[in-house]
Amino acid sequence: MGYPDDRKYTKEHEWITADGTVGITHYAQDSLGDIVFVELPKVGTEIRAKKPFGTIESVKAVSDLNAPASGTVTAVNEELTTDPEKVNKDAHSAWMLKIKIKDPAEMNSLLSAADYEKFVSEEKH
Amino acid sequence: MSAAEVTTPLVRKTALNAVHRQMGAKMVEFSDWEMPVEYPASIGGGIVSEHMAVRNAVGIFDVSHMGDIRLAGREALAAVQHISMNDASRLAIGQAQYSALLYTNGTFVDDVIVHRLGEEEYLLVINAGTREKDFNWVRDNTRNFDCQIEHLSDEFTQIAIQGPKAVELLQKLTDADLKAVKFYWVTRGTVCGLNKVLMGRTGYTAEDGFEIYIPSDEKTSARVWYKILDAGKEFGVVPCGLGSRNTLRLEGKLPLYGHEISDTINVWEAGLDRFCKLEKPDFIGRSALDKARAGGLKKTLVGLEMVGRGIARDGYKVLDGGGNTIGYVTSGSPAPFLKKNIALAYVPPEHAPVGSSVNVEIRGQAVQAQVIPTPFYKRPKKS
């Protein structure tokens, strides 16, 4: 699985583009299994880097969604409320939030696609 | 095997562990066992797909982590009667029954399937997480009986073949006439060239099917596993992990030790009355159960369907309309076949009638749920 290099990644398996679109990675959806529930914040909510902004549930488990960067939510992908399995089908296009990034410098500490791919290949062992 | 104290090793693996890894299964630790939770989508896996395969066709499970205790001898029946709540004297040779081992206070040591294999021979199939506890408890409580107790858990690889096509699939691999074996009966026959393999028409999925007991060496186990998958191709067989095993048993309201039953829950609370025979000769736990029944129930197991948006999970609180905690969820999950979010929960009897409205606390929010009839799923009668 290729990780697109138009975005940055966290070790908690979220991705974020330069314009503030946020989602979870292919590796994350694969580890979770069949995704059945996504709970996202409302537009206008302030989210903080590394803090939970929502919840994702597979058949088996409940997990937090953590913010890759701080900012204000400007859009929420409501489609995922009715069709959460879209995250399984294509995690890198099934975005969750768009945020107005508060401090672009925060992005510097995130992983590149190549570094993330290396990171998850090591996690698998 | 001696009757010395048995202790638990750290992480245990079944003889099929390498096979699961080779097939790309996601492995998890369950009751000290490293077990497959689900197989990859590329081979038909994933909890939902595996669940649906069992409901609509057939799936196979490695359940070798289950334990086995054999009791044999002149007083084997009396011993089984003393330690279990169902009436084993009703069993014909080749018949099995659901039962439970109880503490003197009427709570659960474990639930078991008692198989009568011979005139004076019984096999108890017990849970993985309670293997050693069960064996030690059975040994300690049958000392006064003239019968031998053997811990056979490591002798068998146990494979469950479950679903409406399970019988047809297994029939391709055995000379035994499986159609003649009724639900909760066993037979023996040749399977994949192995002689006298024990096959029980039992399972934990609320579907028809068999559980077979073969020698636990890795080579034999792998050979039989792949043979079953190969023979099952025409039926769409899927290997299944513990994830779908749990959702399947939950839809069928089959109890799981540590959840619906435990050493703090008694038989009446768990609603297992019909497997508890007070009229049979005395057994451990009986007098406490007599008293408990006279005293009335404080909590009872009910089935819930989520009405509001949210999934009840194990351990979540059940609240009344005023926000007071009245009970707790023992098992909760999306139900892949029924396509709704269901749960089993203990609540006081006044909240138990079908149609009662309660709330489940999900991440601090009260989400509405309703008591609905159980089992949530019943397999259709064969035409």
Strands of chain A, total number: 9
Poorly predicted runs of 5 or more residues of chain A: none
Can you give the mean pLDDT of chain B?
A: 96
CATH level 4 superfamily of chain A = RNA polymerase II/Efflux pump adaptor protein, barrel-sandwich hybrid domain
* Distance, first to last CA of chain A: 17 Å
SSE succession of chain B: EHEEHEEHEEEHEEHEEEHEHHHEEEEEE
Q: What is the CATH topology descriptor of chain A?
A: OB fold (Dihydrolipoamide Acetyltransferase, E2P)
Q: What structural category do the secondary elements of chain B indicate?
A: alpha+beta
Radius of gyration of chain B (Å): 21 Å
| Mean pLDDT level of chain A | 95
Distance between the termini of chain B: 47 Å
In the CATH hierarchy, what is the class of chain A?
Mainly Beta
Portion of residues in helices of chain B? Answer: 10-25%
In the CATH scheme, the class of the largest domain in chain B would be Alpha Beta
- Secondary-structure element sequence of chain A? EEEHEEEEEHHEH
**Spatial strand order of the main sheet of chain B:** 11-12-13-10-4-14
Q: Into which percent range does the helicity of residues of chain A fall? A: 10-25%
Strand count, sense and barrel status of the largest sheet of chain B are: 6 strands, mixed
**Beta-strand fraction estimate of chain A:** 25-35%
Q: Which word captures the global form of chain B? A: globular
Compose a concise summary of this entry:
The complex is a heterodimer of chains A (125) and B (383). By secondary structure, chain A is α+β, with helices and mostly antiparallel strands.
How does this structure look, described?
Chain A has a single domain (7-104), classed as RNA polymerase II/Efflux pump adaptor protein, barrel-sandwich hybrid domain (OB fold (Dihydrolipoamide Acetyltransferase, E2P), Beta Barrel), CATH 2.40.50.100. By secondary structure, chain A is an alpha+beta fold. Chain A contains four helices and nine strands; from the N terminus they run βββαβββββααβα. In chain A, the strands form two sheets. In chain A, strands 1-2-3-9-8-5 form a six-stranded antiparallel sheet. In chain A, strands 4-6-7 form a three-stranded antiparallel sheet. Chain A is globular, with a radius of gyration of 13 Å. In chain A, strand 6 and strand 7 (62-66) form a beta hairpin. In chain A, 21% of the residues lie in helices and 33% in strands. Chain B is of the alpha+beta class and 383 residues long. Chain B folds into two domains: 1-296, Probable tRNA modification gtpase trme, domain 1 (Gyrase A, domain 2); 297-375, Elongation Factor Tu (Ef-tu), domain 3. Chain B is built from nine helices and 20 strands. Chain B has helices at residues 17-22, 47-56, 76-83, 131-141, 166-171, 218-231, 242-251, 267-270, 286-295; strands spanning 12-13, 26-30, 33-38, 59-62, 67-72, 96-102, 108-118, 121-126, 148-151, 156-162, 186-191, 194-200, 209-215, 238-240, 300-306, 317-319, 325-335, 340-347, 357-362, 365-372. In chain B, the strands form four sheets. Chain B has a six-stranded mixed sheet with strand order 11-12-13-10-4-14. In chain B, a hairpin with a 4-residue loop joins strand 17 (325-335) and strand 18 (340-347). In chain B, helix 2 (47-56) packs across helix 7 (242-251). The relative contact order of chain B is 0.15.
